[in-house]
User: Fold this.
Amino acid sequence: MTIGTIKEILEAEVVCGEESLDNEVFSACGSDMMSDVLAYVKNQAVLLTGLVNSQVVRTAEMMDMVCIVFVRSKKPTPEMIELAKDSSLVILTTPMRMYEACGKLYENGLRGESRHV
Amino acid sequence: MNESLTFHFDVDGTDFTSAGQASANVKRSLRQLGLAPDIIRQVSIAMYEGEINMVIHAGGGEADVTVFEDKIEIVLKDHGPGIKDIDLAMQEGYSTATDTVRSLGFGAGMGLPNMKRYTDEMHIETEVGKGTTIKMYVNLTD
Assistant:
């Protein structure tokens, strides 16, 4: 699934990374606890979260993730957007709540494939 | 690579927002060295968890990363409160972090277990009231 498709499914706005919407995403993870996110390595993953602080972007960066989706229309700070741009991360924001956003992506074939190192 | 390369960072314990900077720098440097993406990810996640720990528990500290021919060494040193019970601290889900830290997305009790999970070797030296030094190694060869 491409990031562009995720944007369509989640009726999301692009905050940054418009030029990377054609990039592929292979798995997903929905959490507000960053250490839980860090526990599982996923391949070219998207992170869905309701948490808004710089560590969300850092976590995605460390995990080599390709996209962050903020649920419930949450908006990242300018500082977070700068960090995301440095790491070529796409940021989306969707009006949907976490459960609904994850459900829609799963329903459309994006699984949470993950593995322990 | 015939000579070892060392990176040194002071981790600021007062600023949660900038936590992770040292790990991000290391990640960039390892990329420039052309190391395998899996190795880079292991090192940067383990160091990032350690860096967050130093900020939320110990008021900051120092991080040294050395790239040897056959392994990468990460040394994290702080002068914080120390770890009272290492076995307990190594259990997934156990945390002494405050609610404030939890509201920031950490303190799930996964920090130390994740550091162990992503490295080939981990040693903890700690003394209550004095501080903690954690050494981690990621092998570059099988």
Chain A has one domain: 3-107. The first strand of chain A starts at residue 13 and ends at 16. Strands of chain A lie at 13-16, 27-30, 45-49, 67-70, 90-93. The interface with chain B takes residues 32-36, 38-39, 41, 51, 53-56, 58-59, 61-64, 79, 116-117 of chain A (CB under 8 Å).
